Structure formats: structure tokens, C-alpha cells
Amino acid sequence: MISTLLSRRGGAADGDRVPRLLYGADYNPEQWPRAVWEEDVRLMREAGVNLVSVGIFSWARLQPAEDVWDFGWLDEVMDLLHAGGVGVDLATATASPPPWLTTAHPEILPVTAAGETVWPGARQHWRPTSSVFRHHALRLVREMATRYAAHPALVAWHVNNELGCHNVYDYSDDAARAFRQWLRARYTTLDALNHAWATAFWSQRYSDWEQILPPRLAASHPNPTQQLDFKRFSSDALKDHLRAEREVLREITPDVPVTTNFMVMGGTRGMNYADWAGEVDFVSNDHYVQPGPQDRDELSFSANLTSALAGGRPWCLMEHSTSAVNWQPVNVAKRPGDLARDSLLHVAHGADAVCFFQWRQSAAGAEKYHSAMVPHAGPDSELFGAVRELGATLRTLAPLAGSEREPAPVGILYDWESWWACEQDSHPTSLLDYRQEALDWYTALLALGVRADLVTPHGDPHRHQVLIAPVLHLVPESLAKSLARYAEQGGHLVTTYFSGIVDENDHVWLGGYPGALRELLGIRIEEFGPLLAGDTVALDDATTGSLWTDRITVTAPETEVLSHYRTGACAGRPAVTRRPTGKGSAAYVSTRLGARDLAALLPRLLEPAGVHSELPASVRGAVETIVRRGAGGRFVFLVNRTDVTVAVPGVSGDVLLGARDADGAVSLGPREVAVLRTPAG
Amino acid sequence: MISTLLSRRGGAADGDRVPRLLYGADYNPEQWPRAVWEEDVRLMREAGVNLVSVGIFSWARLQPAEDVWDFGWLDEVMDLLHAGGVGVDLATATASPPPWLTTAHPEILPVTAAGETVWPGARQHWRPTSSVFRHHALRLVREMATRYAAHPALVAWHVNNELGCHNVYDYSDDAARAFRQWLRARYTTLDALNHAWATAFWSQRYSDWEQILPPRLAASHPNPTQQLDFKRFSSDALKDHLRAEREVLREITPDVPVTTNFMVMGGTRGMNYADWAGEVDFVSNDHYVQPGPQDRDELSFSANLTSALAGGRPWCLMEHSTSAVNWQPVNVAKRPGDLARDSLLHVAHGADAVCFFQWRQSAAGAEKYHSAMVPHAGPDSELFGAVRELGATLRTLAPLAGSEREPAPVGILYDWESWWACEQDSHPTSLLDYRQEALDWYTALLALGVRADLVTPHGDPHRHQVLIAPVLHLVPESLAKSLARYAEQGGHLVTTYFSGIVDENDHVWLGGYPGALRELLGIRIEEFGPLLAGDTVALDDATTGSLWTDRITVTAPETEVLSHYRTGACAGRPAVTRRPTGKGSAAYVSTRLGARDLAALLPRLLEPAGVHSELPASVRGAVETIVRRGAGGRFVFLVNRTDVTVAVPGVSGDVLLGARDADGAVSLGPREVAVLRTPAG
Amino acid sequence: MISTLLSRRGGAADGDRVPRLLYGADYNPEQWPRAVWEEDVRLMREAGVNLVSVGIFSWARLQPAEDVWDFGWLDEVMDLLHAGGVGVDLATATASPPPWLTTAHPEILPVTAAGETVWPGARQHWRPTSSVFRHHALRLVREMATRYAAHPALVAWHVNNELGCHNVYDYSDDAARAFRQWLRARYTTLDALNHAWATAFWSQRYSDWEQILPPRLAASHPNPTQQLDFKRFSSDALKDHLRAEREVLREITPDVPVTTNFMVMGGTRGMNYADWAGEVDFVSNDHYVQPGPQDRDELSFSANLTSALAGGRPWCLMEHSTSAVNWQPVNVAKRPGDLARDSLLHVAHGADAVCFFQWRQSAAGAEKYHSAMVPHAGPDSELFGAVRELGATLRTLAPLAGSEREPAPVGILYDWESWWACEQDSHPTSLLDYRQEALDWYTALLALGVRADLVTPHGDPHRHQVLIAPVLHLVPESLAKSLARYAEQGGHLVTTYFSGIVDENDHVWLGGYPGALRELLGIRIEEFGPLLAGDTVALDDATTGSLWTDRITVTAPETEVLSHYRTGACAGRPAVTRRPTGKGSAAYVSTRLGARDLAALLPRLLEPAGVHSELPASVRGAVETIVRRGAGGRFVFLVNRTDVTVAVPGVSGDVLLGARDADGAVSLGPREVAVLRTPAG
Questions:
Q1: What is the pTM of this model?
Q2: pLDDT average, residue stretch B334-355
Q3: In B, residues 318-337, which contact A (CB 8 Å cutoff)?
Q4: What ipTM, to 2 d.p.?
Q5: B195-216 as b/e: b if 16+ CB within 10 A
Q6: Are the Cβ atoms of A533 and B330 closer than 8 angstroms?
Q7: C508 contacts chain A (CB < 8 A)
Q8: C: neighbours with 3+ CB pairs under 8 Å?
Q9: Using one digit for the tens of pLDDT, what is the confidence trace for C391-424?
Q10: Contact state of A99 with C524 under an 8 Å Cβ cutoff
Q11: A316: part of which helix (H) or strand (E)?
């Protein structure tokens, strides 16, 4: 769908019906004089840009007062873009309410847990649950949809922008009211809520729905289920806003696909995108690299997870950066080759559109030091040269447009509910980092050259021979059963410390940990052994654990102990176990090993499943490989993870991108990407 | 009294009149289905539990609405416990106001210094000075007392819970009003207050009582005497609540002793327990180990200080943990033996009751990862085994029940007023830590094997040959005189840097430091020399100082200089001095030496008093010794402070707990405790 | 003017018309009983004190209620001081509003960005924009001025105190109103404001002035020009208060000079003193040493900058400390000699008055541990001895009173607007420290023994052969032109990374960095290369850069590359460049070199200007030299920067302070200062 978006344009050329990769950016012409617009469209053509998002922050310009509308400039922009052959992903423009609205209605401003008002001055200063905001936002959406329904440039709708980036948690009275409604819908009766929230503890029993509040600033740890439900509610409240805008758009322009840009990256965790993914016509994502030793593994991880959200189908990279951003403590520039490699890594994982924030770097405002396609230095710059080059590369890769991801032998289960639950306060350790643990497994698999797919609870684990479920903390009965079924039917499950501990209400599964998975794993843990910061324990397989240990007792005779603790309070006890389950198995890793030691352990966990690297031994770890498959063939991406040249021997297929050396090996310069095509199998 | 509490039970057996050690926990049956209650009582008997605290967080359950009461379930619990032979320390249940109350009366919620409301969701969300809260709390107390006055299980009252754990500082308008009343009572006239607060500084002179406020968020350092008085007032406000509940209880059940659980541990400093101790019929304390190099020294220190609060008489350890807690950054599990050793160390220091939070580990709620007597894993667990074993040990130790502490040769003066005063802002250094300095002296004495008692200003220093007063910062004239008298009458006083500096109004004693003790010590300091973080100075006795130095001039001819500074700005000047005072002496240590170097210095300070270790040289430092004495004899506790086996030769007495080896030495395994009994002298 | 202030006293002796150095302190007699006052005046005479500031925090005492005045005690103090020959710099007493005023008018209390009220309890709890506060403050000023207009002790007015120390940023509704007025005055039209603030970004377009707010707590980075304008406004709001008080004083006592004490020191940056300097009759400054490796360089830097504010004319050191202060995390005492050296370094840079906070150390209150001229120990102390000695030294130096600073060969441009702008959020790096960069250049010049003057944008760069402009970030067109003119007319300009980037609206100069200086420097930068914390790059001249790098392209054929990057992402590219501009030049340093490596680079930058050290090679770096020049001659100060004795050979002139050794060299003990006089040239 994404790859044929341009065919939606009125008067689209026949060629637009051929799938192609899209290329573009957020385009904010209102920041520039009229004269610049023509140059913009000329440069877009030069760079191969064919898709831009327009109007994201235009509310104050489009509706300068409650009953005043000014669409003329946008009409002109849309016409210019259309004339230039550029399709428009048109924003609903509701991301940032204008000053007149917040002045007239300060009651739409969010409130922090400590009761502080979040004032205008930046963006997203609106309560997701404000009926006043909703009213004004939907009115704008309706105006936009009505006016541009028939515009030939329109190819998709872009709802709001980065929903929840700053306003996911609002503790206002509006939020309190909406929270109560959400709780009524979830629990029906107060008794059910009192049970779920375990309000017998600390004298918290509610006798009226009106007594319930968000977890505002409290004297100590607020009720954990209240906290967890507030996270669920807050994600749902924003999802509800997304749906409300979408419904207006579907009513007026039923044929135009609707999307919004997710933020699958880094620590962004407030929005349960696995739950949101079904609400959009195609998935879009924003991704920014945060410097660190695993920065490009994290990029791959995020792109992979976005692919999971999209159900393996193509998705749109709605924002990333050509170089530095402006919001990190230090915003480092990308090195030569990073721009292309970062973009193509997203394509490898299913992106059929590669877009940036933003087209032209702002001369002023809070993001003026955020890089763009046209930098402050202007088109006469190395950066714009690289942008043009990437445009050409994406044209070369057109044959893979529309292809889907080919399932990998290994799946990594990623679950927002466990993420939220396992990092709550008053836990055995405050140092646990759900995403880092998952990323470490991913890095370890990259180091081994073994392909892995992120999988959400909505995905089908049976597509993978091995399913890794790091810190799968919150396990309702149904999930416990489906995991047991997976293992019994031949799947090889691997899980870790602090998994299977609580149910959907954050109530501990009693009788010994990990209650929900105890029988499946054939072990029992009487007590957790979290480690102080800096403490480590040695295992007898020469690996080293940190963060956590468990006092494990093996309870099933068939359970094998893969390694023991050699030091620490658990010395002599099992550290890694595996219970055979017919054709499958269920393994448990009771400590944090980190990426390097997980790579040492993994071959023993993958072996029973017969999973090995598909890469030649000489390049394992140096090269990431990803496979897309579609009508046009099977496309193997080879991404050089290193800063030196790597030759990959024995790779079959036509070289769609890259080059073979004299020996026929695919030669990858530092950080380079190659794509090989074989006919669809 | 504690050891015969069970005899208060209606229908108590004759045996209950024999003193015994009590054993138990907080018991929260409302968190569990009815079916579990019977198992609870059965397991309690199995473990030797004979005392539980019930109802602490039951307000919402007992009074589900303003005029609705539900005591049936508690009646049943009380009956079951009584039938099982378990006495009940019944809570007044006022610790955490129920949702209906805070919804109807949000004006009882505390307010932070920055003006933020502290909302419900956790616990202790009530203003100590709210008349509305007081009204509702006392009404509940009256109902409880009336209903259970005659219940045979009732053996004591447990007022509220951990008063001030989260709500000691409240800056609300209620607090402001009460603060003014408290100040009127303290100062009578505004002139007296203006003098005490030195309001001539920074234009703060008050012309009306109504102008006075708590030290809320200010532009710079608030008035220090205002800060100090607000600490005094805040402690008193909670004490006043304790007294108010107690008065209701005494009216209705004059024969049932009343207690509340103090929190003598770690940095808890808001409540002046030395001042509170007289308000309860027996002292109770909660103690939790915080991991660190001095963690068990700190346990001993806290237990010792609790004994001081109890006037040397037995007290109740109302809460500690069987293993990990849930509120530290990382909550480490206890090692084998820790459970018993930690408990018995409290007993050594005078605890006649050993109780835990809590009986059965919660399956849900904010403390579900806090260990308990019955863990998540159930009674079939190593932990419950250790719990049963401790129960048996406590039965073995019954003969010492009711015995008091035998005064130690060394006293360490611990004073809340100096603690509060010396750590205020705008001081020479913000790095000073009153409790750490006192703890270091304690650790040093443990390292030397010399017994020491913590002493409060209410205690009698003359019971100790040596009195150490670390950072005795705030010294009213009366205290200065009593210390001088102590030294003149043969006592050996040791004090340190930043002692004797201010009077009760935090006004500096002029003319040269330490003004209040200058003549007694025979020195004069013109200027403080605090050291930057990380800076150290060498002394000429091979010790090393940090944090502080003083530019000392010796003013009395008889003053001896025990050591000089060898480096730093004070190089060549005295560092440690001692002035003989007839049969006694007054010594001054002008820098922070830390536990190790204090142990090097101490023999020179103890020598004139003739104080030496009572332990054989071979085990000094490895073993802590504590002595209780009562009708049943003299009981010497030997606690192995190390992780290896230690043999203590030459100890006389019957081995009540532990064993002698072939040579007759008392053999202590790692972390083990032995108790020897000799006839009362 | 300052040096003849005493001649203003009624009945001043003839000698008072002879210029002399003034010596004194803040004097707060209201903190002491009447009996102490006489001793105070006696000790002042003993110490040589001839000037005190009185009444700074006396509001509550002078006006105990709205319509009650109590001047009697102050009359007496003024009389006593006059009788003792001490002149009075009389405070307007408005620094700290009394309790009765804030109780009656809580609406004068400041509000934080998060909406928190700043309560009384400390000082400066008033909104600069409150009309209510202004009314009461000016009423007090009028009373003071009227009462003491004719008092013979009065020699100057001291407006308020340390304006803005704690209350420069107020986000109240009063501030919002005043901010809007200020913006109307600056921009006239909303269109101009919308353009300047680039409100097209993030939908911030204002359609009514009433919509505009201070940059209160927001969801993300507030609008940067709004932030910058709020800084300008906040500085102006306090300046406006200064002017309002001054106007009352000028009306009533037109002949008495008016000053207020600036705080040119450390990170104090909220008040644009370059902009304020013209508002006072003579410049006064408060300076406190903050311990660190560059602490006395910072003292010299601040004194030097104060001299720049005073236009090279004498100024008043209104406050510094005899030893420790009370508000740093650790307040270290001064070493022997520091008191005199610190004072004389200020004199070297133009101070004709040396005053302290405060005369007598407070026995109570928030600053009781702040050192004073008379310490807690009393006059019988080493400290008071040093105070007396300094008084004698200042009498010796009387001949230089009234002399001005002799321009140094090097100027360092210091600009509050660039300071504010370059450290805003959402920038390439958050680690940039404007003042530290400027201080490092200053330290490097001290290490080379080259004299340098701080210069404000109001100063004349043409007085200096070399003008260094570190991080001159904000460059309006006029400044760009004047710098080009400077270089073209023979000046040697040196600037650094992140200079010339934005205009007065914080809009980026487009086309390649550094836009405003690109042509002058003959280089073009496409992209910034900030470095992560801890990262460094090697240059090919053996220096090392941190914090920042630039990807420089040389664009003018005449531009020379002085050094290249050897490592890092810019390896091989230019790091330091210089473009000859006729007789002058324009150099660019693209990384942070730090003081030591700047000292290595500087000779190459100074060489074309023919600037060399005036000191003998043997003492360069060890000695700081400063020159004052006046009717009485040319005065060369030699300050020993080291802790060992230094002999300075070949210095001509009469030794006014200090001594020559047998060889005729000026001998400087550790931290000593010498002054040589030659006849005025």
C-alpha cells in the first residue's frame, strides 16, 4: 500500500501505480517566505523527493482565531507540490494548540503529578481527555478533510504528531474523570476493582467510583495496580484521540489512508503501540539514533519492532535525521555513510518510505539545530549531496517495494504490559531495564549472525523455531497456556529472570516463582537475589552475571542445568536451565548476562532448535542480514556493522545494490549496505 | 512487662505469667480469603508465634463509610487468634485514612514546602495538625477500644503506625496555625521570638503572630531558628497525636499497655524519640538493615539506642524483615544465618519481643516484594524453616526475658537537637553527617571489643566512665554545666569538631569556639577549617582526617596535645587535645577520623579511665559482646561479627545458646550468636 | 569620585579632599545590643575603616508597621559613625520586605516557572514587577532620603542590595503583564514579534498581546526567542527598579552619588551589567572566591570585568569576605595572606574602596558562619590582626587613589547577550560554558604574562591590538560590521567555535556558519561537530580539543590554516585559521583548547600584532601585572600568583608597596603584592 500511495494522487502517472520506495520529509513552508517555496520544490525534484508531510504545526496559521480560517497559503503549497510531482501526507494540524485556544481555554492544559500546570511555549500542551480540546481539534480535522478531500496532491492523512511524546501522563481533573470511566468499563463493579487493586492493603478500599484518582504525588509508593492501570488508561486515552480524528477523516475521505507517526525508539514507552497498530491504515514510525555502543543495533531493533507492529508488511519511516538532532545532551553529527546506512537499515526491516524531519532546516525556533535535508549551509553542501545520492539509491531499490519480511528462525517477544509492569517502583531492584535486556539478546544474535524478528503478543510465535521472552514479567493465564502450547508443539522457549511473576492485575502467582511458568520450566525459586549496582557473579561456563540471581531448585527430573553459579550467594545452584518438552524445550536464564555473554550462551540454546547463522563464518558479527520477500523476488540485505571493508563470500543472487569483488564476494565498504535479489521462491 | 504481656489475655494459662520472649508479626488477614486464616493460625503455632499486630491498615475495612462500621471479620480474627494461643497487639487502625474520608475532606491532605498537595494512593496522607483528621481518628480509636476492651486476645494497643514515616513535615495552613500556637507556648511574647529567631537579620522582625509561617519554599536559606523550631514543632505535633490516641485508650482500657512503633534506624530523624519515649508504656521499634560496610554495626547501634530510649528496660522489636525489603534501590536477600543473628542482636540489646513485617507475604500491593514469615513460596520453603528455627531458639532463651541492660563502661551521647541543628543549611560544610560520626565511634569501639551504651540527654552520664559526645553541636548552658560537672567528678568526656557551638536558639557562643565547652576543654578555636570533598589531612599519630579541621590554640596550661596536624592549613597545630580535670578529663577531636582511625586513637582516650576490652585479645573486633542482667542471672551475648568460625576462650557461665568446643571455648560459626548465663551478681 | 567620597561628609576635614582608598564593610548594628556599637566604632578606627554601608536589611526595624516609623536608632548609629570619622553609604533598606508587608500583600511574592510561590523566610521575596512592592519600596526610599539628606555622615546611597541575586526570574501574573508591555515597546507590532519569535514553528502565532506569557514550565523546549527576551526583560525589570529608587534619591539629594552592588562573579548571569553600568554614579561590585584551580584567576577576571563596566574608572568593592563564606557546599577558610592579596588584586583592577560583608560576624541568622572583619572570636584574633594590617596597607597606597586603568594590549570581548544566547537549551551541546571559555583565555594570557582587559560591547575595541571574542554567538549585523572594521583597520580579531551564528532574534545566519563572520574569517562550516563528554581530538600542533569541532572549508585564498585536526571526525580538516585583512587579521579557533593549550597557541595569534609579555621571562606566569595611571603617576602592580617567593628583576619605579632584594629585584613572598610608582607619562 505505501509503495503505491502516489497512485492516489489525482492525475497520477501510470508509473505511479508501479510500486516504488517513497522519499521525503516533513515540510514546513510557513516558516519561509513565499519565494523559497519554488526553490524547495525544485530541490525536492533534484533529490528525488516524492512525499512530504505538510501542516503538522500549522494550526495557528490555518485558524488564526476561533472563527477565522486561512487556507489560501496551504492551497498554494499543495498546488505547488502537486505540480512538482510530490505527494502530500497531510497533517490534521492538531499537534499543537494555538495561543488563542489556550488563552480562551486554559483548562485544556495538562497537569503534572505534582499539580503543576504545563503551560504553552513549546508543543503538545493539551490534555488527551479534554472535551474542549477534542471539540476544537475535531472541528479543525473536519475543515481540513473537507477542504482537501479532492486535492490531487493528497495521498494520506497524518493524524496529529508523535502522540504522547510529551503529554501521555496528565493528572488533571479531566484525566481523573476519564480514568474513572475507563475503570468502570474495565471492571464493571467496584468490588472487582478493589480486588484487582488489592485495596485491602494500606486501607485503600473504595466505596464510590468518585473517590478514585490518578496516581498523583503521594507520600510513598502509590498502589501498583493503580499505577499500571493509569499507564494502560493513558495509552488508551491517546489512542482514543487517534481514533476520534481518524473517524472524521474516514467519514469525509473514506479512500485516503490514515496514519500517525509512532515513536518506536529508545525509552519511549508510554504508548502501547502493539495495541495501537490496528488503528492505522499503515504503520509509520519516527526514529532517532542516540549515541552509544549499541546505537545501530538499537536502530535495527526499533525498525524490526516496527515491522512486527506492521504485521511484517511495509511501513513508513516518517521521521529520522540526516545528521544531528537538537534535544540530546550532546548532538553528534553523523559520519559519512551514516545517512544512507541508517536509512537502508530501516528499508531492510520493511520501510517502504524514508522520510526525515525535516525538509529545510529551520532558521529559528526550538529545533533550528536539528539537521534536515537542506541544511543551514544550503543545497551547496556535502549533506545535500548525500541526500541526492540516497534518492538515487532508493530509485535503484524500487523492485523491492511492497515486499514483506521473511520470518526469521528466532523470535523475541516484546510486550508493553511486561515492560510497564516490571519497571514499577517498590520492586526487588530499581536497576532493571526491560528494553536493554531485550536489546542485549538482539545484539547477541547479531553478533552470531542469526536472524531474529521482534514479535508482539499479537504475533504468532509458531513462525519461529526459537522464541526468546526476556523479562516476561506479566503473564496472564492465557499467555502462560499459549507459551506452554508453543513449547509442547516443538517450539523452543527461552525466558529470563523476573518472568512469569504476576498476572494482569500485578498479583503474584503464588507457590514459588516463576508462578505462571514454573511447571513449564521445571524449576522453582523461593527467593530473588538481586545484586547491588556493580556487583557481579561468575557462572561455571565462564560467563558473568549482574543485576539479578535466583535461588533455583530443579523440580522436574528432566530439567537440565546448563550452567551453575560459581560465586555469590547462589554459588553451586543452577543459573541456566532447560526442560525438554517433547520436541520443544523451555529454558530459563536467571541472571543478566549482557550482550557479549549472551552470545556465548546462545549457541547452546539454539542448538536443539537447529538454528544456526545463515552467514559464512568469516563475516558473522560483522554483517547484519535481513530478508524481504515479495512478488519481485527475495531480497537479502547485507549491512556492514563495522568501520572496515568486509567481503561476504558465497552469497547468491543479483546485486541490486552494492558490488561483487573479483572473487565474487559481495564487498561492503565501512557501514555499507548491499542488496541481492533472487527470484521469489 | 513485655515478657509477661501474654498473661493479660483473658484465660491466659499459668505459664503465661512466666516471662518469655514474644515472637510474631504484623498480621493482615484482610488481604486474604477466609480460608487462609485457619492455616495462618496453624502455621503460627508451628512457628512458635505468640504475638501479632492486627488492624494497622484496616480503617477502610472497619469503617467503610462515615457512619458504617464492620467489625465482624475482625471479631472472627481475634477469636481465631485467641483460640490459637496468640496474643494481639491491636492497632488503632488510624495509620492510613480511607478514600471516603479524603474525598469528603481533602483539607486533611499534607502540603509540601513547595505547596504541592500530597494525594492519597499510598499511605500517611494526613496532616498531623488537622482537627478534622484528629476528630475522625479519635472516633475510630474510641470504637476500637470500646469493642475490644474485653476481648481475651487483646494484650496491648498499637497506636497508628510508624508515625511520621512520610508525613512529619507538613507546610499546610493547618500546620501554620499549629506552629504559631506552639511558638506562643514556647516564647510567650513576640519579642522573645524575635530575639530567639534573630529576626534583626534580613529584615524578618514579626509584629504579629499571624505573620509567622512554616519555612516554606524560599528564595534562599530560611531563618535557621525558624527551621529548627519547625523541626521541634513537627516532632511535637506527631507526639501530640500519639498522646491524643493514647488518652482515649487509657480512658477505656486503663490496664492495657499502649505503644507505637518508633523507627530508630538509618537516617530517620524527624521524630525526637528521646522526647517521645516517656509517652508509651513500653518502647517499640522497627528496624530494617540497609546494605553497606557497617550494616550490622548500624543494627547494633539502633538496637542499643532503642534500649537507651527504653531506659535500659526490655522493649519490643515490632518490625524487622525475614529477608529483603521492597523500598531500597536494590533489595538484597539475607544470607543463611542473617535472620537469626539479626533478631538475636536486637534481643541482646534488650528486645523481649521479636516481630516482623509481616506474617504472610502480600500477593499484591506496594509491599508484595517485602519478605515475610510465610513467603510467596509458602511454608514449604527454606525461609519458613528458618522462621520455625528462630521460634525454637527464642523459647530456649526464655530465662533472659525481663532482664535489663547492664551499663557499659563507655557512653555515647546521642542528641536529636544537636542532630537537627548541626545538619542545617548555610553551615561551614554540607557534608557533615551526625549519625555517621556517632556510628563510626560505635564501630571503632566494636573493633576494640569495648562495650558502649548509647545515651540520650535524658540518661545519666555518670553510669559510664567515659562519655563520648560526637558533634554535640547545640549546647544550652545547662548541658554545658552538666558536662563540666561530669568531668570534674571523674568522668572522662570526649567530644569532637563543631561541638558546643550554639545554644538552644542556634545562637553562636561568642569569644572563640567551642564557646560552651571552651573552658572545660582548655582550648580556643578562632576559625573552622572544613575540608573539600576528597581532601584529607595527615596527623602526626599516623591517622588521617577528613571533612573538618580546626585552628586550635591551647589556652589552659594543663591541656595536653595528643596529636598534631602534619599537613594541611593547620599543619603544626593541635588536632586532638585532652585537659585533665581532677580525676576526670575532657578531650577534643577536631577532625573526622573515621571508624578505623578512631579505633587507633581510642585506646589513648580510654586509658585514663581504665577502660579496656572485656574480651580475650584473640577475638576483639571479631565478636560483639552485650550483657543483660535480671532476676534470672547475668546473660552475656557473644555475636560473631565475621563470616568465619571464631572460638572465644575463657568465657564463664552456662551455655544457654551455642556450644563449647573441646577446649572449652565458646565456638561461634559465621554470624552465630551464643548466650552464657551466670547467676545474678 | 570614590576616593573623595569622604569629602561629602558634613564637616569633612581638609584631608578628606585628598583622594584616598576607602575601607570598610556592611554594618548591621540592629543585630547587636546598643553597648556593642561604641566598641564597633572604636575598633573601626583601630582598623582604619572609613566607610560602612548601613541599613541594608533594616526595613522591618525602620518601618515596623505600614504607618509606623522608627528612625531613632539609626539616627544614633549615624551620629556615632560620624563622630568616629566613618562615612556612610546608606542603604535604601528595600532589599527584604518585612513580614507585615508580605502578610498584607502576598501578591508581591515571586512565583517560579513551575507555579510555586516563593515565600518569606529568607530574603528578596518580592516580584520586580509588582506595583504594590514598588509603591511601598519607594515610600521607604523617600522617607530615608528625606530624613538623612542633611546628615553629615551620608556620603553615598546604596540602592536595595544585590538586585536579582534570588529574584531575577519571576513568572507571576505581574511578570506576565510587564513582559507584555516590554515586548510591545520592543516590537511595536505583533507581526514583528511573531517574526522575531519565529512563531510559525510549533503553531505559536500570537493574535493578541494578551496571549503572551513568560516561559513557564512547558512540555518541551520553550520558544528560544521567548526565553531570550524573557532574560532581557527580567534584567530590565530589575534595572527599572534600580532607576525608580534612584530617581527618588536624585530628586531629594541631587548631590549624593547613587550606587548599587553588582555581583560580577562566578555564574551570576541574570543581570546584564554592561547595560546597567550607566545607571549608577559609580560602579560597585560584590565578589566571593569559589574554590577551584582557577579561583584567583576568576577573581582577577571579575575585577577586570568590573573595571570594564566602570569604563576604566575607579570603582567600589562593596563586598568580599575576610575568610570563609556560608553558602558554598564546603566553605573553606582563607590562608594567611589571602585576605590582603585578594583585596589588593581588586585594587589593582581599579577598586578604590575595599569593603567586606560584614563588619561584625552575626551570632545568629542564616549568615552566622560567614566570616567578617570582627569574627566570633572577637578582636583578639589573627583575623582582626590581618584586617588592621590591610587598613594600614591601604593608607600606604593612598597615592594611587583616583587613578584609572591603563589599556592592555589585548582585549577580551565579554557580552551578556551572547552568554545568554549560547547557553540556551536545544543547542548542539549542553556542555558549553561561556564564562569558562572566556576565563580560559584570560588564564592563558596570565600564564604568558600578557596583560589583557575585559571589554564589553559598549567599550572601544580599537584600544587593543588584539581582540579576543570567545563564543561570540549572537552577532547582530552592526556588530559584524564593527568587527570587520576593527580587523580592516589593523586590529587582530580572534574568535571561536559557535560564534557569529545568530542575530539579535536568535535566528541563524544562513548559508554556512559562522554566517555573520564567514567572509571576515574566510572560512565556511557546513556542520557542527560537538563532542561527547570526555571525548577529545588531537590537533597537529600537539594541542588537544574537547567539547566542539567544526567541519571547516577554507573559502578565501588568503586564509591560513594554523593547525589541523589529526584525529576525530574532522581529521585532516582545519582546526585554527587566520585570514589576513590588510594590516589586521581575523582568526578562528574551532575547538575548546582549555587554558593550557590556549597558552600554547596564543603566541602565534599575538605575534602578528606584535604583542608580547612585558614581564621578564623568568617570572612570566608566576606574576600577574596590572597597571593603573593617574595624576599621581603610573602604578604597576605585581601579584605573586604562586605559593613560593618570586623575584622580579628589571622593574623600574619607586616601591610603594613591597620590597627590593639585594639585587634590586622586587621580591614577592607567596601570594604577595607589590606596587611600583613611576611618574605619570
A1: 0.97
A2: 97
A3: 323-324, 326-327, 329-333, 335
A4: 0.97
A5: bbbbbbbbbbbbbeeebbbbbb
A6: yes
A7: yes
A8: A, B
A9: 999 999 999 999 999 999 999 999 999 999 999 9
A10: no
A11: strand A315-319
